[in-house]
């Protein structure tokens, strides 16, 4: 389709302006500085195609694939559109086995499968033990237990604050796109696709919002009761990509990445002052 966005290189905290994670501007200007940028596609599983892998070989995050999922390493965050909260997640949300999840699912539910060191994988439950999901550049219809690949899962209907469509419409949205692949896809990852099926909002689609002008989205990362950090974005699509990257590398890695950048910025300012 004509709205396909060309894949660009990912930018991390070390390459963008940022601010104090305590929520204070070190220069005293009052407003915290954020960032808005376009991300490359992320893959939803650990078996990535080489041509879709957006991490340079020398900066690939350490894989935690063999470690059990640690909910305490999840980063709490809130997403605002202007002053309205559109997404909120607390850390430590319970996840269960695929078999236990099946007993709780209803058609139209959003599901999230999680594993330490991997991107979360989202799917729409459509009934009869099956889900529809975006996987490796194709919308597929599979059994829930097959999609989970042994990962724990949870129902995540309440993360986004938008009003959900009727269950039958959610299921139809998902089923109507089974088989869509490659250049015909309108979604950058499994979360965007699943959320679009449930809420039907264009901002979950590729190019659904124009990246010009003021940055209306804020992603607030909550490290503790006293420490937080805010980034600004021009569209929800970019917010989701950064949020998923944080989920993949984990809370501790995000904190270390941000601390390294702040220290480097401080050293650079001191060097400029001395000169």
From TrEMBL:
InterPro entries: LRAT_dom, LRATD1_LRATD2. Residues 111-206 form the LRAT domain. It comes from the Eukaryota. Residues 41-50 have a biased composition (Acidic residues). Residues 51-70 have a biased composition (Basic and acidic residues). Pfam families: LRAT. Residues 1-70 are annotated as: Disordered. This is LRAT domain-containing protein. It comes from Poecilia mexicana.
